[in-house]
Design goal:
Blueprint: E1 12-13, E2 16-25, E3 34-47, E4 56-62, E5 65-68, E6 73-76, E7 81-84, E8 91-93, E9 100-107
Antiparallel strand pairs: 1-2, 2-3, 3-9, 4-7, 4-9, 5-6, 5-8
The structure holds zinc ion.
Length: about 120
């Protein structure tokens, strides 16, 4: 078992505008199947407009914003849960006045046809 404070993981620039990502759990600390990332988007910022072959499982911790999908635009706030299905184009946007912070889980298993680097909020090697 491992426990640590999220602040021990450095925030890296993520694709998009004013977006940061902390890879809290991934292969580097022993996970085999899932990755937990903490995303922070500053006011006015956004994630990249993108899609990929894996889903996102999101839990909003704080802040306000929205996620724009292919057919809808949904409001985000503290406690909002989001499932972004694979291959759906999406973009997170902070239209509030404070940082938008959310956890975003993805599988670590890479699709045979590509890697996570193609997506946004990508993992910096
Ligand atoms: Zn995505």
């Amino acid at each position: 078992m491992k426990t640590f404070n999220f602040k021990e993981v450095a925030a890296q620039n993520a694709d998009g505008d004013k977006a940061k990502i902390r890879w809290l759990i991934n292969e580097a600390n022993g996970a085999e199947n899932f990755s937990m990332r903490l995303i922070e988007i500053a006011p006015g910022g956004s994630s990249a407009h993108h899609s990929h072959e894996w889903e996102h499982e999101v839990f909003v911790l704080e802040g306000k914003g929205y996620i724009k999908g292919e057919k809808s635009k949904e409001t985000l706030g503290k406690g909002t849960v989001v499932l972004v299905p694979k291959n759906e184009v999406h973009q997170f946007k902070n239209d509030g006045t404070k940082p938008l912070k959310f956890l975003c889980m993805i599988p670590l298993k890479k699709p045979a046809s590509g890697s996570y680097e193609r997506g946004s909020l990508s993992k910096k090697e």
